[in-house]
């Protein structure tokens, strides 16, 4: 029986499953082209892979920097456009909307096209979107924060904070209440803040579209052409760089938050607010210009990288029979790792999309993994998005300091944890089940440690009429009328103003008027208010009681608790991130290789659709319910929140985060059961394939024996004929 006939009768997909990557490719290259040619090809492949790894790391860095900078500007955008937290959540989630539009098609079709060039085009789109986000700053006018301080012209003496002292009885009856209503003059017609945030929304959508091919195509490219034992380490390195990006993103946010939004166009001496004020807006637009340039540069290397690389000889099963090797040598898989990588028309690829997606979703392990990650990412995204704001509001820190701490303390711990997790997986050579157990264990330890955040609480800031009634009875008020008291009854004050001053008694008042201050001297941040009658009502006896511009210093109890909060945050971030790389490898290794790009893309699509988009919105909406004092837009309507109930904020923020993680752990139990069943089925399939290989070897031996028998028979017959001829002679 001819040898080639045995090879043809083999099912092609079984041989592809046995030896997806040709171990004999190196040997054949040596035979046909010479050893030096094979060596040069291997060196070129190694160099190209390293170049791709560096380029992908830089692209990850760029997209992570711009993404983290977006989160660092959440409070700046709220104040600049006078919008609530849930609306900034919509802006933040618009990035995921961009991904939602194209991720499935980019992941499926992109795997069949030139992946590096598609990634390059995505980086260009990300840069364009980042520039569009900064555009509103150049289209709208100067930032005008709400204040009741009005300086008189050419004088160091200001107008009285208590306007009733200067008004006649007739004016009091007719015009004294105008201060309570927002202006609706011609200046309001030029205000376009309501529509300007749409540019930020659309720019972030474009960023999301551009970021789409970077992760699924980049990770699948590395896993396709890297050695199997190095793939996890390389992916861990890329993800580590991706976590280093937010370090610089938050540091950039910290730097820009210190700079006034209209720096260079206003006299800074006339600005009465400081970076710690709830009305302060930093130069949010400047960081987006920097991030856009960096993202644009990251696109350059991908234009010069090849579509595919030679396949490592050690990828796939350790041994292949000669028949399988001979079959693969004649197969198109020699040039490309999978048949999916062969050029095909879009119509043919589109026809296969729905059946391929059904096959993917038919994997129960993949499906339960998807549900677990969706729930955990809801918790993670909501927590990370509003963590700087939580530090600002709960511990009385400025936006600049909150971003600085996120960038220098919290994010490096995450980067170190992801890198260490990838290194441990390589050293320990964890199986799929081992990686799943490792990821679950680290997440569970971090969960229990996070429960201690609930006891690291701070008292509400002492604000008269809001968190502390004027009669000094402890309590939190939600009634705007409570800001009025007998001590400020002689003044015509607005309950909508937010221009806080700090009295000598250590209590913050909503405005100088509501503090009962009669006069003021100085200008800008050096303004001093005198004869503040409410300070006397608060408990001081007599004298020229004064108040200064801004909040009173934050509470002593927060100064003691805050370092412990930072330390625990670093420890939990490191422990949880240890399971990042092993958990990601579970996703890659529990699916068929030809479905890898689609699985990664659909995973990204699902998590961003069901976690990235809704999480910032409903987290922000719940945080808005804890607001005690809302700002007022210049032309009417509710603006950004000025002060929160810190106790309610802590319970809502931490409670929602921990509740989601609790649900995810319950699903993990079901996931482990399905994973065990999946591994057992894989073992049975591998055993059957091994038996098929043994049968193939038996057939080969039988063929050899039959061939030898035929040859022996022919030899015996020839010898017999020769003997008979000799006998006759």
Note the gap between the termini. 39 Å
Low-pLDDT segments: 1-35, 151-155, 165-187, 316-343, 537-541, 725-729
Largest β sheet strand count, sense and barrel closure: 5 strands, antiparallel
What would you call the structural class?
A: mainly alpha
Relative strand content: under 5%
Mean pLDDT: 74
Give, in spatial order, the strands making up the sheet with the most strands.
2-1-5-4-3
**Given the structure, what is the number of helices?**
25
Proportion of helical residues? 55-70%
Shape: elongated
What's the total number of strands?
A: 7
Radius of gyration: 34 Å
Could you explain the architecture of this structure?
Helices cover 63% and strands 4% of the residues. The radius of gyration is 34 Å and the shape is elongated. By secondary structure, the chain is mainly alpha-helical.
Task: Please provide a brief summary of the model.
Residues 21-42, 707-729 are annotated as: Disordered. The chain is mainly α. It is built from 25 helices and seven strands.
Could you list some keywords that capture this structure?
mainly alpha, 729 residues, 4% strand
